[in-house]
């Protein structure tokens, strides 16, 4: 058998107080897709950053084609034929695809003139060879996300990569775009490239991987193949215990109207229309899921409903109050809980101790404030109770939120928002980037809120999450609700097409 | 990647963070003194002798101790003003100007009205605080309404305050002491002077007591009141503050008002407690030095008091040092500059002493407000 293209032996990396990688052995064979599965904090990113030269290992060796190498920085990695496609693309939005690829390795004609045409020809050749469709002359910011990702892959190939590390590549794609990506991946491996595919989505692993490695707590806990395993088994390996992949719930019993949105119009930060006439209703005791690819107006919709963004047209009714132009605190006080999409930007003050983050919206009310004085004891008691009830893993309630893992930070937000007596829950990407155990917990709590008669508006880019929790599903595309379908009859294919803006009637043509 | 580094940043107790900040401050001071000593030695002086002179000048006699306390007082007021701004995410460079405006308002209240002793002084102090507050509210309002960065606008308000005051005490200026050949103002009435606890020169005026109250007041305000919670939340994460229903714009203006009031009160105490009038050069640079004081004290009122004491000691001691040991007083300015440098750039000293990097979010960052939200 061939020498593996990449082999790491005994890689260990310590951060103060954490063993991020604990003697990891790994091999990547030529022409295979190795899926690397693990929760956040399992050590996937640390390992990849070591291989890509962003970190240096404390112990262990790296071999490329059987030869030991030292990778001190990304330049070394690139020289070894390792390329990384980051989750957040490293492209300059205002430049064209070709210009982006030229950066740092420009072809020059004479001494002064860039030879753009030569780069474009080279891109077109690569594009054809691997089935990576992208226009080298297009400006990056005008391209859809899928095309940007293809440009990013071409960039890596252009720099001579034989080993491609794809970090959560499908996080930003529609199901159809993900299928396209899988075709590209197969074409790459057929032509001898080797791929490490980092993900936490079990479905994808089963579909694309030749072999699977699972990391947990910095250790490699298993190596297997899709044929030998199942999604449930992989989930158990990731978490280290049995997990429920399905959310158990009874049929909804919708009650009174809680949120009624009519023809809502909102602009984004660049003052371009982001929400173009959204009409939707959420009743007490039901979950309305808003499905859609990121960047189709979901963020602006949620911000408008919670008073954080100016509404330019239409009307919002919350429990009979007109909250179209209400301030955030009014919306909160009428009875809205909001789990924000960006937990670091909106959801938490990271430098605050957990106990303060738990009263972020209620600090000024009794029992936390009495006669103009904060009540430290009440704040602490509240925190101790919530930490217990919501299973927040933190050394003390005085620990800064920044020290907690992503899943526990999210639990802090969920604990704060769910513990208030609310009528409407707006949850935006409530489980993005957190571990399976926390996801399970948060899903259960969302359903518990629903069953307690709260109206839930769930906005998520994860189709699995939408399908698992929703009673009705509204699909948003370019700021419009393109269709609303009952959850029990919805299929992934149907939703995927809607998310791509294709209406069923048209799809049949 | 984030989670791993988050975890590595973890397990950092409040106490650990606190002691590390104190440690950084102390290291900065020690390092600055060492470098200052080297400079003294290089310029042909005796560093030990020089520092002993500094110490004697600050603590040698009762009079020296009083002088040190009196010199420390305005640093505390101004340092608190800067610290409140920083806690609210605002870099209030305008403390200098707010101090001047406070001085002038207290001065006018001190000679233009007649009130019983005591009440008059209290009234003049109040006017000083009010003047500083109003002067600081302008850049606060501009920031809240238009997003104009407070560093730029407060530099402008400093110039305006300075120039207007210089004009007002120039020849034929409205505040000029009639008949005086010097650029100085009228005298405040005796009823507006701050009573003294001693009969030394300078007097140990009750501004010293007021400033101690102010230290505890600022602590109470920031950490024990809902308003303080709002100020700190806006300072650390304006987006989260808005999300939580805090009126960010209003909080920004209020932060500036409180900061300006503290600065103005400092200016008033100087005028009413020491000279009894205002002249060019009085307190110049105090507002800027207080930025160093605030940073040295990690923007905590108790830290500010400690940092101010250090600056007070150096200011009070440098005359004696120069007189007795021929070490030029400029060395003190150099040391103060070095301290600011090391405190502002802890990365400079961290590798020297293998200190762990302060995690993001734990620092009150100056740069955080640049081009940011709110």
Kindly state the mean pLDDT of chain A as a whole number?
89
Tally of helical runs of chain B: 15
- CATH fourth-tier homologous superfamily of the largest domain in chain A: P-loop containing nucleotide triphosphate hydrolases
The figure for the number of domains of chain A is 2
Gyration radius from CA atoms of chain B, angstroms = 21 Å
Number of strands of chain B: 0
Largest interface: A-B, 48 and 37 residues
Based on helices, strands and strand pairing, what is the structural class of chain A? alpha/beta
- Spatially, the strands of the biggest sheet of chain A line up as 6-9-10-3-11-12
CATH fold naming of chain B: ABC transporter involved in vitamin B12 uptake, BtuC
Strand-pairing-aware structural class of chain B: mainly alpha
- Strand % of chain A is 25-35%
Order of helices and strands of chain B: HHHHHHHHHHHHHHH
Distance between the termini of chain A: 50 Å
- Molecular shape of chain A: globular
The CATH architecture of the largest domain in chain A is 3-Layer(aba) Sandwich
DSSP summary, beta strand count of chain A? 24
Helicity level of chain B = over 70%
Show the helix and strand layout:
The complex is a heterodimer of chains A (509) and B (374).
Chain A: E1 6-15, E2 18-28, E3 33-38, H1 44-51, E4 59-64, E5 67-69, H2 74-79, E6 82-85, H3 97-102, E7 108-109, E8 113-114, H4 116-130, H5 145-158, E9 163-167, H6 175-190, E10 194-199, H7 202-208, E11 211-216, E12 219-224, H8 231-239, E13 257-267, E14 273-283, E15 287-291, H9 298-305, E16 311-318, E17 321-322, H10 328-335, E18 336-339, H11 343-347, H12 354-357, E19 369-370, E20 373-374, H13 376-389, H14 406-418, E21 424-428, H15 436-451, E22 455-460, H16 463-469, E23 472-477, E24 480-486, H17 492-499, H18 504-507
Parallel strand pairs in A: 3-10, 3-11, 6-9, 9-10, 15-22, 15-23, 18-21, 21-22
Antiparallel strand pairs in A: 1-2, 1-4, 4-5, 7-8, 11-12, 13-14, 13-16, 16-17, 19-20, 23-24
Helix pairs in contact in A: 14-15
Chain B: H1 2-9, H2 14-42, H3 47-59, H4 62-87, H5 95-112, H6 119-146, H7 150-168, H8 207-224, H9 226-236, H10 238-243, H11 248-275, H12 286-296, H13 301-325, H14 330-344, H15 346-353
């Amino acid at each position: 058998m061939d020498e593996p293209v990449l082999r790491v032996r005994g890689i260990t990396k310590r951060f103060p107080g954490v063993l991020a990688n604990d003697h990891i052995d790994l091999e990547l064979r030529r022409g295979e897709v190795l899926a690397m599965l693990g929760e956040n904090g399992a050590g996937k990113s640390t390992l990849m950053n070591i291989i890509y030269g962003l970190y240096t290992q404390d112990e262990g060796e790296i071999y490329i084609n059987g030869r030991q190498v030292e990778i001190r920085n990304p330049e070394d990695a690139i020289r070894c034929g390792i390329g990384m496609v980051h989750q957040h693309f490293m492209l300059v939005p205002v430049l064209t695809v070709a210009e982006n690829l030229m950066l740092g390795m420009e072809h020059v004609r004479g001494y002064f003139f860039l030879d753009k045409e030569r780069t474009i020809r080279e891109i077109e050749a690569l594009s054809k060879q691997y089935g990576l469709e992208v226009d080298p002359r297009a400006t990056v910011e005008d391209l859809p996300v899928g095309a940007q990702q293809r440009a990013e892959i071409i960039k890596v190939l252009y720099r001579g990569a034989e080993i491609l590390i794809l970090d959560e590549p499908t996080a930003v794609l529609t199901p159809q775009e993900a299928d396209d990506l899988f075709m590209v991946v197969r074409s790459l491996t057929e032509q001898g490239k080797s791929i490490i595919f980092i993900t936490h989505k079990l479905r994808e692993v089963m579909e694309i991987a030749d072999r699977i490695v699972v990391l947990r707590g910095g250790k490699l806990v298993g190596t297997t193949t899709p044929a030998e395993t199942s999604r449930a088994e992989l989930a158990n390996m990731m978490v280290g215990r049995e997990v429920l992949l399905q959310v158990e719930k009874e049929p909804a019993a919708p009650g009174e109207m809680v949120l009624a949105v009519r023809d809502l119009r909102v602009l984004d930060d660049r003052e371009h229309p982001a929400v173009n006439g959204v009409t939707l209703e959420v009743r007490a005791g039901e979950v309305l899921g808003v499905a859609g690819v990121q960047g189709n107006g979901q963020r602006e919709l949620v911000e408008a409903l919670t008073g954080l963004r100016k509404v330019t047209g239409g009307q919002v009714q919350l429990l009979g109050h007109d909250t179209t132009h209400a301030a955030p605190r009014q919306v909160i006080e009428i009875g809205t809980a909001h789990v924000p999409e960006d937990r670091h930007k909106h959801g938490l003050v990271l430098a605050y101790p957990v106990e303060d983050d738990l009263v972020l919206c209620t600090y000024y009310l009794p029992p936390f404030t009495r006669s103009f004085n904060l009540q430290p004891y009440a704040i602490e008691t509240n925190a101790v109770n919530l930490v217990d009830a919501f299973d927040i893993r933190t050394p003390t309630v005085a620990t800064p939120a920044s020290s907690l893992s992503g899943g526990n930070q999210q639990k802090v937000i969920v604990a704060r928002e769910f513990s208030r007596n609310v009528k409407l829950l707006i949850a935006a990407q409530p489980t993005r980037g957190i571990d399976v155990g926390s996801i399970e917990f948060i899903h259960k709590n969302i359903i518990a809120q629903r069953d307690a008669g709260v109206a839930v508006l769930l906005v998520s880019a994860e189709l699995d999450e939408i399908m698992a929790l929703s009673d009705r599903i509204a699909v948003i595309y370019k700021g419009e609700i393109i269709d609303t379908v009952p959850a029990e009859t919805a299929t992934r294919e149907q939703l995927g097409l809607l998310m791509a803006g294709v209406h069923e009637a048209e799809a049949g043509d | 990647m984030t989670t791993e580094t988050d975890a590595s940043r973890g397990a950092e107790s409040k106490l650990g963070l606190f002691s590390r900040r104190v440690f950084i401050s102390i290291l900065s001071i020690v390092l600055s003194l060492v470098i200052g000593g080297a400079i003294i030695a290089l310029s042909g002086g005796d560093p030990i002798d020089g520092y002993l002179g500094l110490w004697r000048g600050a603590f040698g006699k009762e009079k020296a101790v009083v002088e040190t306390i009196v010199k420390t007082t305005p640093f505390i007021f101004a340092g608190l003003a800067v610290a409140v701004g920083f806690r609210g995410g605002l870099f209030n460079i305008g403390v200098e100007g707010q101090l001047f405006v406070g001085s002038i308002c207290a001065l006018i209240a001190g000679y233009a009205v007649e009130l019983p002793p005591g009440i008059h002084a209290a009234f003049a102090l109040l006017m000083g605080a009010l003047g500083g507050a109003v002067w600081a509210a302008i850049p606060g309002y501009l920031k809240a309404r238009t997003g104009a960065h407070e560093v730029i606008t407060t530099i402008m308000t400093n110039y305006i305050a300075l120039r207007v005051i210089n004009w007002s005490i120039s020849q034929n200026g409205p505040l000029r002491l009639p008949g005086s050949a010097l650029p100085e103002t009228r005298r405040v009435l005796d009823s507006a002077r701050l009573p003294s606890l001693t009969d030394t020169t300078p007097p140990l005026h009750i501004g010293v007591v007021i400033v101690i109250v102010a230290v505890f007041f600022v602590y109470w305000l920031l950490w024990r009141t809902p308003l303080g919670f709002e100020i700190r939340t806006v300072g650390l994460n304006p987006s989260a503050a808005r999300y939580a229903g805090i009126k960010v714009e209003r909080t920004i203006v209020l932060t500036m008002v409180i900061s300006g009031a503290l600065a103005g009160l400092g200016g008033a105490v100087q005028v009413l407690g020491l000279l009894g009038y205002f002249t060019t050069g009085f307190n110049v640079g105090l507002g800027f030095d207080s930025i160093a004081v605030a940073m040295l004290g990690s923007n905590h009122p108790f830290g500010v008091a400690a940092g101010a004491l250090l600056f007070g000691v150096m200011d009070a001691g440098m005359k004696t040092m120069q007189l007795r040991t021929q070490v030029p007083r400029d060395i003190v300015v150099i040391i103060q500059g070095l301290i600011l440098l090391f405190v502002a750039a802890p990365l400079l000293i961290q590798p020297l002493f293998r200190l762990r990097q302060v995690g993001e979010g734990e620092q009150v960052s100056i740069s955080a407000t640049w081009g940011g939200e709110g």
